[in-house]
Design goal:
The protein has 38 residues and is low in regular secondary structure. It has no helix or strand. Helix content is 0%, strand content 0%.
């Protein structure tokens, strides 16, 4: 099931960002607090 994951803002004016590397793969189990991407 897909979930919306919000990227943390690094500044008040930030509107978009780029994921450099995914740390989890499709199908991996995740828990709250897991780091998903860099």
């Amino acid at each position: 099931m897909a979930e919306i994951i919000n990227m943390p803002r690094l500044s008040d004016t930030m509107e978009e960002g780029t994921v450099a590397k995914w740390l989890k793969k499709v199908g991996d189990k995740i828990e709250e607090g897991d780091i998903l991407a860099e």
